[in-house]
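Input set for joint prediction.
Command: fold jointly, output tokens.
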Amino acid sequence: MTSVEEPARPNGRIRDAARTQAEILDVATQEFARAGFDGARVDEIAARTRTTKRMIYYYFGGKEQLFTAVLERAYAVIREAEQQLDVEHLDPVAAIRRLAEVTFDHHEQHPDFIRLVSIENIHGAEHIAASEKLGRLSSPVLDVISRILASGQQSGLFTADVDAVDLHAMISSFCFFRVANRHTFGALFGRDLVDPAQREHYRAMLGDMVIAYLTAERAAD
Amino acid sequence: MTSVEEPARPNGRIRDAARTQAEILDVATQEFARAGFDGARVDEIAARTRTTKRMIYYYFGGKEQLFTAVLERAYAVIREAEQQLDVEHLDPVAAIRRLAEVTFDHHEQHPDFIRLVSIENIHGAEHIAASEKLGRLSSPVLDVISRILASGQQSGLFTADVDAVDLHAMISSFCFFRVANRHTFGALFGRDLVDPAQREHYRAMLGDMVIAYLTAERAAD
DNA sequence: TAGCTAACGTACTAGTTCGTACATTGTGAG
DNA sequence: CTCACAATGTACGAACTAGTACGTTAGCTA
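tokens >
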């Protein structure tokens, strides 16, 4: 069982602050996502790490700050993905659909992130409020949406009265619900929203929904 | 502080099994919704009740079963509201919009229920699975949606390729996200999705979205 | 190479928390 | 009227859990 990936040291004791911190964050992410904030066990996190509980308190200060650090890193990942977004060359309709698909894919691929966000909401977003990195440093995706919306509205193609934040909420709600509420929805209605066989169906459904909303013919008011 | 609603007994000891159970469920609902399953404290629930912790174990067996009972009652409330739904006399478009609005209102008025469902999803819906009352006893709202959809699709008004479960997921996702993710969304984007001043805006947005999706002109495929 | 400090490990504690053993009392049935 | 049982209260314990006091070592620097 004793892995020998690392060069065998007398005591197996190697000093690498960055690696230790990263490993703690990896394991903590899993543990918090698995059991929630109060359900997560600091001892369990430590046990699944190559280091000890002492190091968690040494580097992060406590359970609360550890969870905050986990959240910060999780949000950093999604921000990076959003910055990779390259839709400026597409027409507004294709750009919005592409944006929705990227969001859809990202949510599906990061269920742990979804769980962390759900947990943070149960706790009133107090860790985000306590974080300097996360406070009001707004998402790059909003700028992208703003530009597409402006373009589509100017050409008369988009008729809906929404701004970027509203549209982001609309897209996110569908993607988030599908992953976050997978278990209760499946148990109650007998349908797995994350069934791979249904993936394309729901992916298209999201795009159709958003485009239909934006381009619907509306009575003048 | 000592309320004297009840006729003062020597020891204040009154026997009323139904009332005791209901009171435990009321307080437990608040406590679980407040702090999650592991964050909730059995002692705290007992303290905020006119009875003692002993009674929780006497009537419910344990913390897990108590949470299951809380969930069962919460779902019973929503089922009842769904049965009150009276939209059969409306045309398909108006019926769907009305249905969406009722769902919207219900989610807004029952944030504790939303939190309980989020918590249950963190725990993989294991309590629903353990419940006899909740297992696959499908929701009355699905029948209503089915009938409206059939009517709208038959008349050619509805063009979308969805069934009742899909449409229910679409409507629920928007309503659920708005309440469940209110805190993180507000902290990150500076917009309160449950702001009363924005209520009509989001209520209309949901209806517009669903109707636009259902009635959009589609290329034959 | 001496020594200083960041990085790390061990062992423990104080407080909490679920659950229960045991005692007591109200109340409807016969 | 009494008796049996449902309903209730008290006090306690065993296990867990976040956090810490104290000791050790690696490895860079002067």
